[in-house]
Amino acid sequence: MCAHVLVAEDDVRQATVIRRYLEREGHTALVVHDGRAAIDEARRRPPDLLVLDVMMPVVDGLDVCRILRGESSGLPVLMLTARATEEDLLLGLDLGADDYMTKPYSPRELMARIRTLLRRSRRTGGGADVPDDRRTTDPVLRAGALSVDPVRHTVHLGGRQVECTPGEFEVLAVMAAEPERVFTRRQLLTRTRGSDRFITERTIDVHILNLRKKLEADPKQPVLLLTVFGVGYKMADGPEGHRAH
C-alpha cells in the first residue's frame, strides 16, 4: 500500500525521522518546513495523506488544515501537536483533521496511525480502486432523504452532494447503516477508530457537530442526527429525516 505523503514539520530532525520511516515502508515522502509551502505543495501534487505539525512558521498548521480541508474534503490529515490539552486537540478535529498525536511520540506509533488512515481512506476513497463486482454488491445506505455510498465515498441529501471528511464519513456510514438505532459515543468510536486508546469520546461529539452544520437546516435543532440524552446519538429515518436539507 504505497502512498505519497506530504510531511509539514518545521523541526528538521523530526521531519527527517518521519521521512525515513515512511520510505522504509515503501511510501514516498515530500518534506516541507512551513505552512505556506505545505499549501503550495498540496495544491501542486495532492498527497494521499498529510502529516501536519500545528506549530508551523509563516502559516500555522491549524490554518493549513482549514484551507486545504476547504479545497479537498477527502484528504486524510494527521496533526502533530505539542499542545496536550483536550480543547486544542478537539480544535484540530473541528477544522477537519482525521487524527492527531501529541509530542513526544513514538515513530512506530506514528507509522501505525498512518497505516490506519491510509487503509480507511482507500476503503472509502471512491470508485477508482474498487472492483466492478463490489460496485454492484455494496448497497447505498439510506435514511430518509440521506444517501451514503460506501463504495464511492459520496453523501447526498435530497439530491445535493455533501462533502465530508474521512472521519465524518465513517461516523455517518455507521449510523446510516442502522437508522433509528441509538449508538453510544464509545460504540461509534469503536466502529470508526477501533480500540485506539489515544482517541477520546469527545471526538464523536466534534464529528456530529460538524455533520449537523453540513446536513441540518438548523444545526441547533437537528432533525436527522439526534441526541439521545444520557446515551448518545441516533440517525432519524422517515419523515423527520426527509425534512433535513
From TrEMBL:
Q: Which residues bind DNA?
A: 138-237
4-aspartylphosphate PTM sites in chain numbering = 53
Entry's InterPro entries?
A: CheY-like_superfamily, OmpR/PhoB-type_DNA-bd, Sig_transdc_resp-reg_C-effctor, Sig_transdc_resp-reg_receiver, WalR-like, WH-like_DNA-bd_sf
Q: Which residues form the OmpR/PhoB-type domain?
A: 138-237
User: Does the record bear DNA-binding in its keywords?
Assistant: yes
User: Is Cell inner membrane tagged as a keyword?
Assistant: no
By its UniProt entry, which Pfam families does this protein fall under? Response_reg, Trans_reg_C
Task: Describe the location of the Response regulatory domain by residue ranges.
Answer: 4-118
Q: What is this protein called?
A: Response regulator transcription factor
Naturally occurring in which organism (per UniProt):
Streptomyces vulcanius
